[in-house]
Specification:
Elements lengths: L4 E5 L11 H9 L2 E4 L2 H10 L7 E4 L5 H13 L3 E5 L12 H10 L3 E4 L4 H9 L6 E6 L4 H10 L6 E6 L4 H12 L4 E6 L7 E6 H8 L7 E5 L8 H13 L4 H11 L6 H11 L2
Parallel strand pairs: 1-4, 1-5, 2-3, 2-4, 6-7
Antiparallel strand pairs: 7-10, 8-9, 8-10
Helix pairs in contact: 3-4, 6-7, 7-8, 9-10, 9-11, 10-11
Length: 278
């Protein structure tokens, strides 16, 4: 028996013409199209002048787990299953992870039809460093959880990309000012690739003031990484001073890292201290 395959298909963020030729063929030929929103994928297919020949079924966060066993069996029996989200690359804060993991566990073929992603699109237009970055999904909804999360980014030197609801954007940016400082640079990308696309750059304080007037549309935020405030030899010297005063090396490293935004990780500093003693 010939095995089928799972295809992960990136869909346009806003412009149907951004769809790849491979996605168009897959929409037409797949035995099953598993879509986050069946109405949106049918609208996209219509805009691309393609008619799916296979079944189109819903595949979203709330039903993904229950759909996975059946889809795995379909693939095992020879079906080609195409997974698509509302916009961008599936699995990137969208459904699909469980199905890919199940196919990998079962030894079934998995392939990707690359294309648009709000994460990399925002990073590309941000003007911030793009050589190293992290993606954080959606910012936490609740204030306390959001502040805890933002504090984990205080020393993060990589550029950070995250999503936010337009209704919570101003509040999140205000919290970021409190947790990260008013001068940290950031970029708010609104309605990427769409008619009303807007790229707003500035400090966190400036962007918070701008967002206070209200913002509409889909939002992606790009946050500049922390700027180191001390070089490594200086931090090592601070650790040694604390150690000489009776503090354990690991505790001293933790204290120095906490006192220096943008410092390396505790492990990196600990290793540097040990190297300096050789």
């Amino acid at each position: 028996m010939t095995l089928g395959k799972l295809l992960i298909g990136a869909t346009p963020l806003g412009q149907p013409s951004d769809a790849s030729a491979r996605l168009v063929r897959a929409l037409r030929d797949a035995d099953i199209v598993a879509a986050e929103d069946t109405r949106r994928i049918r609208s996209l297919a219509q805009a691309l002048e393609v008619t799916p020949t296979g079944r189109v079924l819903s595949f979203f966060d709330q039903n993904e787990a229950s759909r996975v066993p059946g889809l795995v069996e379909e693939i095992r029996a020879g079906a080609t299953v195409l997974v698509v989200s509302d916009a961008g690359m599936p699995l990137i804060n969208d459904p699909g992870y469980r199905l890919v993991a199940a196919c990998a566990e079962a030894g079934l073929p998995v392939s990707c039809l690359p294309g648009p992603s709000a994460v990399t699109t925002a990073l590309a237009v941000s003007g911030l460093a793009s050589d190293r970055f992290c993606f954080e999904g959606f910012a936490p909804r609740k204030h306390a959880a959001r502040m805890t999360w933002l504090q984990t980014l205080a020393h993060e030197m990589r550029t950070c990309v995250f999503f936010e609801s337009p209704r919570r954007l101003a509040e999140t940016l205000r919290d970021a000012v409190d947790a990260l400082g008013a001068d940290r640079r950031a970029v708010v990308c609104r309605e990427l690739t769409k008619t009303h696309e807007e790229i707003k750059r500035g400090s966190l304080a400036e962007l918070a003031d701008w967002a206070d007037d209200g913002v509409l549309g889909e939002i992606t935020v790009v946050l500049a990484g922390a700027t180191p405030t001390a070089d490594l030899p200086t931090l090592v010297a601070e650790v040694e001073e604390l150690v000489a005063a009776g503090t354990r090396v690991k505790d001293a490293c933790a204290r120095v890292v906490a006192d220096n935004p943008g410092a390396p990780s505790k492990r990196e500093l600990y290793d540097a201290v040990l190297r300096s003693r050789d």
